[in-house]
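RECORD TYPE: protein structure
NAME: histidine kinase
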Amino acid sequence: MRFTLLYGAMFLLSGIGLLAITNLVGLGGTRTSQSAPPGTPPTEPTTLTAATDRIAWLQTQLSDTHTAQSRQLLIGSAVALMIMSVVSVVLGRIIAGRVLRPLRTITAATRRISADNLHERLAAQGPADEVKNLADTIDELLERLENSFDAQRRFVANASHELRTPLATMRASLDVALAKPEPIPAQTAALADRLRTELDQIDRLLEGFLTLARTQHGALTDRTTLSLRQLANTALHSRATDITAHHLTVDLSADPAGTTDDSAWTQGNRTLLTRMIDNVIDNAITHNHHGGWIRLATTTDATTAQLVIETGGRILDQEQVTPLAQPFQRLSADRTHSDNGSGLGLSIVAAIAAAHGGTLDLHARTEGGLRVAVSLPAAAVPTETAA
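PREDICTED:
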């Protein structure tokens, strides 16, 4: 629109200038024609009175003719100016579209290129002008991004083996040292238990790093249709011992908003979605007070499948809850009376949800506790399940 107005104004000003010059030249020629050409001898009148009347009549005729010509010229100029206004807008629109067409093509192609098809290029054709230079610069940027993503994927592929091997060696060395037949000093046994605990914590932290990196920088493959309700039930069943140890009450009733529970079908990678729900359940169990409760609900609408898990507890500040989706963000240790978490649990949940086109919403309940809602694109119920 700005280019249309700019080009239209330029065409219109050019038309106004052209009409102004035409009017000045036309009116100047008309005024010049009122006087007799120089060097022409005057005609001798028959009588002075007749000559005077003749001159007055001629002057009147010339004045009327000049007025009529001026009026016709102004009317013609006004009509031409109106026509020129319309033509200017049309021409401005055409030229603006022509100028911006390559930029629209570049914009559409750039939006189409994502992390999964960074190998594509704009490959703009045409003369070496500013637009082609812009397209070539974007191609170079895409090449650097592709190399960076490839490096990240190679790191994720190799880091698991390279980093887990020293941990396994250290754990095996501890087991060998403790398995010797001679008596082990109590202080040594306590130190070995402490080291084994720290190694387990490092192992969990490493696993969280790798999952987060794989989710953020890896291609999402092996999609299948899954039920969030079934995955959540499996996670709760496998953690029945921990739930009992904390004396927690699990409520699988309907969502507090009044919507009906269902299986909440979605499409995604089974391993990642299982890890996502496991982290949410672990967070609800670990970050809960003794004798507390967990409420789980799944809902589905036309476009979204949602898993909602609520826990009770003390009243939390929303400003403290919101950053929990970022790595290494924790609430104060007095919430759980422990600080054994790696600070990656909910950040992994957020990354997996984002990789599947969903969102993670963390909300501090006004009654106390936390509400965790994972929303993913809904999928149709599998045929065999519906049957």
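COMMENT: The chain has ten helices and seven strands.
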